Amino acid sequence: MLTTTTKVMVTGGAGFVGRRVVDRLRLEVITRECVPRPSQHDLRHRCAVRTPLARSTRDVVIHLAAVVGGIGANRANPAGFFYDNAIMGIELMEQARRYEVKKFVSVGTVCAYPKFTPVPFREEDLWNGYPEETNAPYGLAKKMLLVQGQAYRAQYGFNAIYLLPVNIYGPGDNFDPADSHVIPALIKKCIDAKESNLPSIEVWGTGRASREFLYVDDAADGIVLATARYDGGEPVNLGVGHEITIRELVFLIAKLTGYRGEIRWDTSKPDGQPRRALETSKASDLFGFRAGTSFEDGLSETVRWYLKAKATAHETESQVRGVAR
Protein backbone atom coordinates (compact mmCIF):
# COMPACT_ATOMS: atom_id res chain seq x y z
CA MET A 1 0.00 0.00 0.00
CA LEU A 2 1.01 3.60 -0.61
CA THR A 3 0.55 5.93 2.36
CA THR A 4 1.35 9.54 3.14
CA THR A 5 4.65 8.44 4.66
CA THR A 6 5.78 6.19 1.79
CA LYS A 7 9.11 7.29 0.31
CA VAL A 8 9.27 6.62 -3.44
CA MET A 9 12.13 6.98 -5.92
CA VAL A 10 11.10 7.24 -9.59
CA THR A 11 13.90 6.81 -12.12
CA GLY A 12 12.99 8.52 -15.36
CA GLY A 13 10.59 10.62 -13.29
CA ALA A 14 11.24 13.70 -15.43
CA GLY A 15 10.49 11.80 -18.65
CA PHE A 16 7.43 11.22 -20.80
CA VAL A 17 5.76 8.56 -18.62
CA GLY A 18 7.62 9.37 -15.41
CA ARG A 19 6.18 12.88 -15.09
CA ARG A 20 2.67 11.43 -15.09
CA VAL A 21 3.61 8.79 -12.55
CA VAL A 22 5.04 11.43 -10.21
CA ASP A 23 1.89 13.54 -10.63
CA ARG A 24 -0.30 10.57 -9.69
CA LEU A 25 1.84 9.78 -6.68
CA ARG A 26 1.29 13.34 -5.53
CA LEU A 27 -2.46 12.88 -5.99
CA GLU A 28 -2.11 9.93 -3.61
CA VAL A 29 -0.48 12.41 -1.19
CA ILE A 30 2.90 10.75 -1.74
CA THR A 31 4.98 13.89 -1.35
CA ARG A 32 8.25 12.19 -0.45
CA GLU A 33 9.29 11.22 -3.96
CA CYS A 34 12.83 11.34 -5.34
CA VAL A 35 13.50 11.85 -9.07
CA PRO A 36 17.20 11.33 -9.93
CA ARG A 37 18.12 13.64 -12.81
CA PRO A 38 20.21 12.12 -15.64
CA SER A 39 22.56 15.10 -15.58
CA GLN A 40 23.42 14.34 -11.94
CA HIS A 41 22.92 10.58 -11.68
CA ASP A 42 24.06 8.38 -14.58
CA LEU A 43 22.33 5.16 -13.57
CA ARG A 44 24.77 3.06 -15.58
CA HIS A 45 27.32 3.64 -12.79
CA ARG A 46 27.10 2.09 -9.33
CA CYS A 47 28.11 5.21 -7.43
CA ALA A 48 25.40 7.24 -9.20
CA VAL A 49 22.81 4.61 -8.27
CA ARG A 50 23.89 4.49 -4.64
CA THR A 51 23.79 8.24 -4.03
CA PRO A 52 19.99 8.83 -4.13
CA LEU A 53 19.37 5.56 -2.26
CA ALA A 54 21.89 6.35 0.46
CA ARG A 55 20.64 9.90 0.92
CA SER A 56 17.34 8.70 2.38
CA THR A 57 15.91 5.22 2.88
CA ARG A 58 13.34 4.51 0.17
CA ASP A 59 10.30 2.30 0.59
CA VAL A 60 9.64 1.90 -3.14
CA VAL A 61 11.65 2.27 -6.36
CA ILE A 62 9.75 2.62 -9.64
CA HIS A 63 12.21 2.06 -12.47
CA LEU A 64 11.12 3.93 -15.61
CA ALA A 65 14.47 5.22 -16.87
CA ALA A 66 15.28 3.66 -20.25
CA VAL A 67 16.97 4.26 -23.58
CA VAL A 68 14.18 3.87 -26.14
CA GLY A 69 13.40 4.53 -29.79
CA GLY A 70 11.63 3.32 -32.89
CA ILE A 71 12.71 0.62 -35.35
CA GLY A 72 15.34 2.81 -36.99
CA ALA A 73 17.00 3.76 -33.70
CA ASN A 74 16.99 0.14 -32.51
CA ARG A 75 18.60 -1.06 -35.73
CA ALA A 76 21.26 1.67 -35.62
CA ASN A 77 22.26 1.18 -31.99
CA PRO A 78 21.48 -2.37 -30.80
CA ALA A 79 24.54 -2.66 -28.52
CA GLY A 80 23.86 0.66 -26.80
CA PHE A 81 20.20 -0.17 -26.31
CA PHE A 82 21.12 -3.53 -24.77
CA TYR A 83 23.94 -2.35 -22.52
CA ASP A 84 22.37 0.87 -21.25
CA ASN A 85 19.02 -0.70 -20.39
CA ALA A 86 20.46 -3.88 -18.92
CA ILE A 87 23.11 -2.25 -16.75
CA MET A 88 20.77 0.45 -15.42
CA GLY A 89 18.17 -2.04 -14.28
CA ILE A 90 20.54 -4.69 -12.94
CA GLU A 91 22.60 -2.25 -10.89
CA LEU A 92 19.57 -0.37 -9.63
CA MET A 93 17.80 -3.50 -8.41
CA GLU A 94 20.96 -4.82 -6.71
CA GLN A 95 21.56 -1.54 -4.88
CA ALA A 96 17.87 -1.26 -3.96
CA ARG A 97 18.15 -4.69 -2.34
CA ARG A 98 21.30 -3.70 -0.49
CA TYR A 99 19.67 -0.52 0.81
CA GLU A 100 16.64 -2.55 1.95
CA VAL A 101 14.06 -1.01 -0.38
CA LYS A 102 10.75 -2.71 0.38
CA LYS A 103 9.39 -2.85 -3.18
CA PHE A 104 10.89 -2.57 -6.66
CA VAL A 105 8.69 -1.90 -9.69
CA SER A 106 10.27 -2.81 -13.04
CA VAL A 107 8.50 -1.34 -16.06
CA GLY A 108 9.41 -3.59 -18.98
CA THR A 109 8.28 -3.54 -22.60
CA VAL A 110 6.03 -5.38 -25.03
CA CYS A 111 9.21 -5.84 -27.12
CA ALA A 112 10.15 -8.62 -24.69
CA TYR A 113 7.51 -10.90 -26.25
CA PRO A 114 8.45 -13.45 -28.94
CA LYS A 115 8.10 -12.31 -32.54
CA PHE A 116 5.29 -14.73 -33.32
CA THR A 117 3.34 -14.68 -30.06
CA PRO A 118 -0.31 -15.75 -30.50
CA VAL A 119 -2.69 -12.79 -30.26
CA PRO A 120 -3.70 -11.64 -27.71
CA PHE A 121 -0.32 -11.83 -25.97
CA ARG A 122 -0.64 -13.66 -22.67
CA GLU A 123 1.95 -13.39 -19.94
CA GLU A 124 2.42 -17.17 -20.05
CA ASP A 125 3.75 -16.89 -23.64
CA LEU A 126 6.62 -14.57 -22.74
CA TRP A 127 9.31 -17.27 -23.05
CA ASN A 128 7.93 -19.16 -26.06
CA GLY A 129 10.34 -17.79 -28.67
CA TYR A 130 12.81 -15.06 -29.59
CA PRO A 131 11.75 -11.38 -29.84
CA GLU A 132 11.38 -9.54 -33.15
CA GLU A 133 14.92 -9.03 -34.47
CA THR A 134 14.88 -5.25 -34.95
CA ASN A 135 14.33 -4.59 -31.24
CA ALA A 136 15.43 -7.87 -29.63
CA PRO A 137 18.48 -6.39 -27.82
CA TYR A 138 16.28 -3.78 -26.14
CA GLY A 139 13.49 -6.25 -25.40
CA LEU A 140 15.85 -8.84 -23.92
CA ALA A 141 17.68 -6.28 -21.79
CA LYS A 142 14.38 -5.26 -20.21
CA LYS A 143 13.27 -8.90 -19.94
CA MET A 144 16.31 -9.72 -17.82
CA LEU A 145 14.85 -7.52 -15.08
CA LEU A 146 12.01 -10.03 -14.78
CA VAL A 147 14.58 -12.82 -14.35
CA GLN A 148 16.53 -10.75 -11.83
CA GLY A 149 13.42 -9.83 -9.87
CA GLN A 150 12.23 -13.43 -9.65
CA ALA A 151 15.70 -14.62 -8.64
CA TYR A 152 15.93 -11.95 -5.93
CA ARG A 153 12.47 -12.86 -4.72
CA ALA A 154 13.49 -16.53 -4.44
CA GLN A 155 16.86 -15.94 -2.74
CA TYR A 156 16.33 -12.75 -0.74
CA GLY A 157 12.55 -12.44 -0.38
CA PHE A 158 12.83 -9.18 -2.33
CA ASN A 159 9.47 -7.77 -3.46
CA ALA A 160 10.11 -7.04 -7.16
CA ILE A 161 7.18 -6.79 -9.58
CA TYR A 162 7.34 -6.59 -13.38
CA LEU A 163 4.93 -4.78 -15.69
CA LEU A 164 4.67 -5.18 -19.47
CA PRO A 165 3.16 -2.04 -21.02
CA VAL A 166 2.26 -2.00 -24.69
CA ASN A 167 3.32 0.95 -26.92
CA ILE A 168 2.68 4.18 -24.99
CA TYR A 169 1.75 7.47 -26.69
CA GLY A 170 0.34 10.88 -25.80
CA PRO A 171 1.13 14.57 -25.24
CA GLY A 172 4.76 15.20 -24.40
CA ASP A 173 6.04 12.25 -26.44
CA ASN A 174 9.34 12.40 -28.34
CA PHE A 175 8.73 13.81 -31.84
CA ASP A 176 12.36 13.75 -33.03
CA PRO A 177 12.33 11.66 -36.26
CA ALA A 178 15.77 10.25 -35.41
CA ASP A 179 14.45 8.14 -32.53
CA SER A 180 10.70 8.66 -32.13
CA HIS A 181 8.11 5.89 -32.06
CA VAL A 182 5.49 5.39 -34.74
CA ILE A 183 2.69 7.71 -33.54
CA PRO A 184 4.75 10.88 -32.94
CA ALA A 185 6.78 10.17 -36.09
CA LEU A 186 3.61 9.94 -38.21
CA ILE A 187 2.00 13.00 -36.62
CA LYS A 188 5.09 15.10 -37.35
CA LYS A 189 5.39 13.70 -40.87
CA CYS A 190 1.75 14.50 -41.73
CA ILE A 191 1.80 17.99 -40.23
CA ASP A 192 5.11 18.88 -41.90
CA ALA A 193 3.80 17.59 -45.24
CA LYS A 194 0.57 19.55 -44.87
CA GLU A 195 2.41 22.79 -44.05
CA SER A 196 4.78 22.28 -46.98
CA ASN A 197 1.99 21.24 -49.39
CA LEU A 198 3.75 17.97 -50.17
CA PRO A 199 1.76 15.70 -52.51
CA SER A 200 2.76 12.51 -50.67
CA ILE A 201 4.46 11.06 -47.62
CA GLU A 202 6.46 7.84 -47.35
CA VAL A 203 5.85 5.30 -44.59
CA TRP A 204 8.00 2.30 -43.73
CA GLY A 205 6.78 -1.22 -44.38
CA THR A 206 3.61 -2.65 -45.87
CA GLY A 207 1.11 -1.23 -43.38
CA ARG A 208 -0.14 -4.72 -42.56
CA ALA A 209 1.53 -4.99 -39.15
CA SER A 210 -0.68 -4.17 -36.18
CA ARG A 211 -0.02 -2.42 -32.90
CA GLU A 212 -1.81 -1.71 -29.65
CA PHE A 213 -1.38 1.69 -28.02
CA LEU A 214 -1.84 2.82 -24.42
CA TYR A 215 -2.45 6.48 -23.62
CA VAL A 216 0.26 7.86 -21.35
CA ASP A 217 -2.12 8.95 -18.56
CA ASP A 218 -3.66 5.46 -18.50
CA ALA A 219 -0.17 3.92 -18.38
CA ALA A 220 0.71 6.07 -15.36
CA ASP A 221 -2.52 5.03 -13.64
CA GLY A 222 -1.68 1.37 -14.21
CA ILE A 223 1.85 1.72 -12.86
CA VAL A 224 0.69 3.49 -9.69
CA LEU A 225 -2.14 1.00 -9.11
CA ALA A 226 0.30 -1.91 -9.45
CA THR A 227 2.73 -0.19 -7.10
CA ALA A 228 0.00 0.20 -4.51
CA ARG A 229 -1.81 -3.13 -4.89
CA TYR A 230 0.30 -5.84 -6.54
CA ASP A 231 3.03 -7.85 -4.84
CA GLY A 232 3.29 -10.93 -7.05
CA GLY A 233 6.30 -12.35 -8.87
CA GLU A 234 4.62 -12.97 -12.24
CA PRO A 235 4.70 -10.38 -15.05
CA VAL A 236 1.51 -8.44 -15.79
CA ASN A 237 0.47 -6.80 -19.07
CA LEU A 238 -0.64 -3.17 -19.21
CA GLY A 239 -2.71 -2.33 -22.27
CA VAL A 240 -6.16 -1.81 -23.73
CA GLY A 241 -6.71 -5.14 -25.48
CA HIS A 242 -7.35 -3.69 -28.97
CA GLU A 243 -5.03 -3.50 -32.01
CA ILE A 244 -4.95 -1.34 -35.12
CA THR A 245 -3.00 -1.93 -38.33
CA ILE A 246 -0.31 0.58 -39.27
CA ARG A 247 -2.25 1.29 -42.47
CA GLU A 248 -5.35 2.19 -40.48
CA LEU A 249 -3.23 4.24 -38.09
CA VAL A 250 -1.65 6.27 -40.90
CA PHE A 251 -5.00 7.15 -42.45
CA LEU A 252 -6.45 8.06 -39.04
CA ILE A 253 -3.53 10.37 -38.27
CA ALA A 254 -3.78 11.90 -41.74
CA LYS A 255 -7.46 12.61 -41.07
CA LEU A 256 -6.83 14.13 -37.64
CA THR A 257 -4.01 16.34 -38.93
CA GLY A 258 -5.88 17.36 -42.09
CA TYR A 259 -3.28 15.91 -44.47
CA ARG A 260 -4.89 14.84 -47.78
CA GLY A 261 -1.87 13.75 -49.79
CA GLU A 262 -0.93 10.30 -51.02
CA ILE A 263 0.48 7.64 -48.66
CA ARG A 264 3.39 5.75 -50.21
CA TRP A 265 4.66 2.53 -48.64
CA ASP A 266 8.37 1.73 -48.67
CA THR A 267 8.14 -2.05 -48.56
CA SER A 268 11.95 -2.37 -48.54
CA LYS A 269 11.81 -1.23 -44.91
CA PRO A 270 10.80 -3.61 -42.09
CA ASP A 271 7.34 -3.87 -40.56
CA GLY A 272 8.73 -4.97 -37.22
CA GLN A 273 6.71 -7.47 -35.19
CA PRO A 274 3.72 -8.70 -37.27
CA ARG A 275 1.07 -8.13 -34.59
CA ARG A 276 0.82 -6.72 -31.07
CA ALA A 277 -2.23 -6.92 -28.85
CA LEU A 278 -2.31 -7.83 -25.18
CA GLU A 279 -4.54 -9.93 -22.98
CA THR A 280 -5.19 -7.48 -20.15
CA SER A 281 -7.46 -9.35 -17.73
CA LYS A 282 -4.70 -9.97 -15.15
CA ALA A 283 -4.14 -6.25 -14.57
CA SER A 284 -7.86 -5.83 -14.00
CA ASP A 285 -8.14 -8.84 -11.72
CA LEU A 286 -4.95 -8.28 -9.70
CA PHE A 287 -4.96 -4.53 -9.15
CA GLY A 288 -8.06 -3.07 -10.78
CA PHE A 289 -6.52 -1.44 -13.85
CA ARG A 290 -8.57 -0.73 -16.97
CA ALA A 291 -7.55 1.86 -19.55
CA GLY A 292 -10.12 4.64 -19.77
CA THR A 293 -9.08 6.68 -22.83
CA SER A 294 -10.43 5.84 -26.29
CA PHE A 295 -7.75 5.64 -28.97
CA GLU A 296 -9.18 8.39 -31.17
CA ASP A 297 -9.59 10.73 -28.19
CA GLY A 298 -6.02 10.09 -27.08
CA LEU A 299 -4.70 10.55 -30.60
CA SER A 300 -6.64 13.81 -31.06
CA GLU A 301 -5.23 15.15 -27.79
CA THR A 302 -1.71 14.21 -28.90
CA VAL A 303 -2.13 16.04 -32.22
CA ARG A 304 -3.47 19.13 -30.43
CA TRP A 305 -0.56 19.08 -28.00
CA TYR A 306 2.00 18.82 -30.78
CA LEU A 307 0.45 21.67 -32.79
CA LYS A 308 0.45 23.89 -29.70
CA ALA A 309 4.05 22.95 -28.81
CA LYS A 310 5.15 23.59 -32.39
CA ALA A 311 3.45 27.02 -32.45
CA THR A 312 5.01 27.95 -29.10
CA ALA A 313 8.47 26.92 -30.31
CA HIS A 314 8.02 28.94 -33.51
CA GLU A 315 6.91 32.01 -31.53
CA THR A 316 9.88 31.71 -29.18
CA GLU A 317 12.28 31.36 -32.11
CA SER A 318 10.79 34.44 -33.77
CA GLN A 319 11.23 36.44 -30.56
CA VAL A 320 14.86 35.35 -30.26
CA ARG A 321 15.54 36.34 -33.85
CA GLY A 322 13.89 39.70 -33.24
CA VAL A 323 16.14 40.37 -30.23
CA ALA A 324 19.20 39.24 -32.20
CA ARG A 325 18.49 41.80 -34.90
Describe the structure concisely.
The chain is α/β, with parallel strands linked by helices and 325 residues long. It has helices at 18-27, 46-55, 71-76, 78-98, 136-156, 182-195, 216-229, 246-257, 281-287, 295-324, and strands at 7-11, 32-34, 60-63, 103-107, 160-165, 167-169, 200-204, 210-211, 213-215, 236-238, 244-245, 262-266. It is built from ten helices and twelve strands.
The oligomeric status of these chains comes to single chain
| Cα Rg | 20 Å
Note the overall shape. globular
Q: Average pLDDT across residues?
A: 91
Helices and strands: which structural class?
alpha/beta
> Quick one: how many beta strands?
12
Main sheet characteristics: 6 strands, parallel
How do the helices and strands follow one another from N- to C-terminus?
Answer: EHEHEHHEHEEHEEEHEEHEHH
The proportion of strand residues reads 5-15%
Summarize the amount of helix as a percent range.
Answer: 40-55%
Give the count of helical stretches: 10
- How is the largest sheet built, in terms of strand order? 2-1-3-4-5-10
**End-to-end CA span:** 58 Å
Pick out the low-confidence regions.
Answer: none
Topology diagram in text:
Elements: E1 7-11, H1 18-27, E2 32-34, H2 46-55, E3 60-63, H3 71-76, H4 78-98, E4 103-107, H5 136-156, E5 160-165, E6 167-169, H6 182-195, E7 200-204, E8 210-211, E9 213-215, H7 216-229, E10 236-238, E11 244-245, H8 246-257, E12 262-266, H9 281-287, H10 295-324
Parallel strand pairs: 1-2, 1-3, 3-4, 4-5, 5-10, 6-9, 7-12
Antiparallel strand pairs: 8-11
Helix pairs in contact: 1-7, 2-4, 4-5, 6-8, 6-10, 8-10
